[in-house]
Amino acid sequence: MIQAISLYAEEARGSFDTVCVAGIGGSALGAWALDCGIRGPHPVQGAFTTEHPRLVILDNVDPSFTEAALASMDPRRTLVVVIAKSGGTAETVATFLIVRDWLEQALGRRQAARRILAVTTEDKDKSELFALSQAEGYRVSAFPKTWAAVSACCRPPAWCPRRSSVSIFANSRAAPGA
Fold first, then answer.
1. Are 116 and 163 found together in one domain?
2. Domain co-membership, 111 together with 23
3. What's the pLDDT tens digit per position in 109-143?
4. pTM attached to this predicted model
5. Distance (Å, whole) CA 30 – CA 23
6. Domain harbouring 82, CATH code
7. If we measure between CA atoms, which residue out of 90, 84, 81 comes closest to residue 129?
8. Are residues 133 and 154 in the same domain?
């Protein structure tokens, strides 16, 4: 998975001046944390360019917020990353469908599809986002089906100071030490 992400990042580098993330909770916060960690806090970040694209996170379904964000972006220079581990988070999917329509109206369906990356679970029967991505030809960075319980395993109970890394991969064949 990491190798595929690195390869795509190399292919896409320099093509976009904005990365628009549609996701809520950890899907949005992870992108925000990485952006701030790499580029610094948002109020003091340098100029946005294709070398250092701007990050726009659509993490709620407020139509005014989404409309303003879309108005601030150029669809020809925007990469859309939709993130929903389950593939069916209602808020994320609803926001993504609005963004997809915005892209398609500006660029046409085929060109819009080239600017969409889905991050979801690799399971067409359970992840609507994965099934949609396959049907529409979106690039997918997929969590293996065996990672279904990773989120729950990554949060140790309050009484436990730490958990073994094996429990994080409890449902994975690639469990450390297995």
1. no
2. yes
3. 999 999 999 998 887 788 889 899 999 999 988 77
4. 0.78
5. 10
6. 3.40.50.10490
7. 84
8. no
For 16-66, the pLDDT digits (tens) are 999 999 999 988 898 899 888 888 887 777 788 888 889 999 998 899 999
Task: Note down the domain range covering 58.
Answer: 2-143
Residue with tokens 């407020």: 62
Burial 157-175 (b: 16+ CB within 10 A, else e): eeeeeeeeeeebbeebeee
Rounded to an integer, what distance in angstroms lies between the CA atom of residue 4 and that of residue 131? 19
Instruction: Tell me, yes or no, whether 155 and 167 share the same domain.
Output: yes
Amino acid code (one letter) for 127? S
Residues 20 and 97 in one domain: yes
Asked if 126 and 85 count as a contact pair (C-beta separation under 8 A), the reply is no
Q: Following DSSP, what letter does each residue of 99-134 receive, concatenated?
A: HHHHHHHHH-HHHHHTTEEEEEES-TTT-HHHHHHH
CA gap 81, 124 in Å, rounded: 18
**Structural domain count, the chain:** 2
